[in-house]
Every structure is written in C-alpha cells, then in structure tokens.
Specification:
With 201 residues, the protein is of the alpha+beta class. The protein has 4 helices and 10 strands. β5 and β6 form a beta hairpin. The structure holds manganese (II) ion.
Length: 201
C-alpha cells in the first residue's frame, strides 16, 4: 500500500496560551519543542522520539501563573492534531499498547483510536514537582490528549519509585502505543477496522 505522510498542524490562541503544533505520524522522531517548561520539553521529546513522530511545538503560556495552562492546552492541541493526522483511520491498526521499562519504573500504556474518549489513569508520584512541572500535570495532560483526540487511553503503573523515571516512561510508552495504533495493516485493504464500519463516534 502506498504510504502517504500524515501531517497536521493546529494553531490555538486563548488569553492563557498561544500554541503552534505540527505533527507527522510518519516521521522519524525529529522534533523542535519549546513549551517554556524544561521538564515538559524533555517529556515531549521522549514521546516524539520513541513514537517516531516528527513534532514541532511552540507554547507561549502564562507561566507567571504556573505551568497548568501551558501543559493542559498543549495536551488539547496535541490531541486535536492527532485526530486530524489520522483522518478517516482507513487501514490503521487502531489498537496499540506497550509496556515500557525505565530502570525500576514499568508503565503500561494502551490506546484505541475508536472515536470515543475515555481516560484511565493509575500512576502515583512521590513529590509535587519535577523541575518546574507539577507532577499532577501528567494526568491533566493525558486526559486532555485522550479527550481531544477522542481516543481510549489507559496508563497504568506496574512499578516505579523515581518520579522522573515514572513520568518519562508514561510519555515514551504513549509514543510507542500510539505509533503501534497508527501503523497501517495491509490485510485491511484500505478499510476501517471496525465491526461498525466506522471509527467516528
Ligand atoms: Mn530523563
């Protein structure tokens, strides 16, 4: 089957954030990420690199308040862009999962690009912050992604003690799971993999 590159861009401006994001699902992990939050940049780099997505993102947010709006809105925009990039979902595998180890941390991520948002999160952090990023924002970010992409997303911590490892394993596992779900399945011959015949809603 012919491989066309699936690229989408979203620009979103509110009183709290100004975000420009471009995602190529058929990339190689090349990325330019500037969210204004160093630890969050590091997380998105892990997502893009290990999902083999090309990702350009610039977030100008109200960091004088805190990191909340910048990270949550980036999740909304990433989810929207994923939805645009997968398009009609013809011939994609739809489901993807990965269990990603990072030293003592072990994180399970499973996604279904089914068109219905659902978010299940079972991850525990010890400290309130990782760098400038509040640990609670990991949950807020993935919730926003799952709802705006209309995907079913499960993140489950199997083990882990170090917050940096746990968070990074979540982002990398999500990259790997989403990569698996967006890959083409040739045996579908261009059809949508659903008993309903659609992966809309
Ligand atoms: Mn790291």
């Amino acid at each position: 089957m012919e491989m066309e590159q699936r690229i989408a861009t979203t620009n979103r401006v509110t009183k709290e954030t100004d975000i420009a994001l471009t995602l190529n699902l058929d990339g190689s992990g090349v990325n330019h990420i500037d969210t204004g939050v160093g630890f969050f940049n590091h997380m998105l780099d892990g997502f893009a690199r290990h999902g083999l997505f090309d990702l350009d993102v610039v977030v100008k947010g109200d960091l004088d308040v805190d990191t909340h709006h910048s990270i949550e809105d980036c999740g909304i925009v990433l989810g929207e862009t994923i939805a645009k990039a997968v398009g009609d979902k013809k011939a994609i595998k739809r489901y993807g999962s990965f269990i990603l180890p990072m030293d003592e941390a072990l994180i399970l991520c499973a996604v279904d690009l089914c068109g219905r948002p659902y978010f299940s999160y079972d991850v525990q952090f010890t400290d309130p912050k990782m760098g400038e990023m509040d640990t609670t924002m990991v949950q807020e970010f993935f919730y926003a992604v799952s709802y705006s992409a209309a995907m079913n997303l499960h993140l489950k911590q199997i083990s882990g003690r170090n917050d940096h490892h746990i968070a990074e394993a979540c982002f990398k596992a999500f990259g790997k799971a989403l990569d698996a779900a967006t890959m083409y399945e040739e045996r579908l011959n261009g059809t949508v993999w659903s008993t309903k015949g659609t992966l809309g809603t």
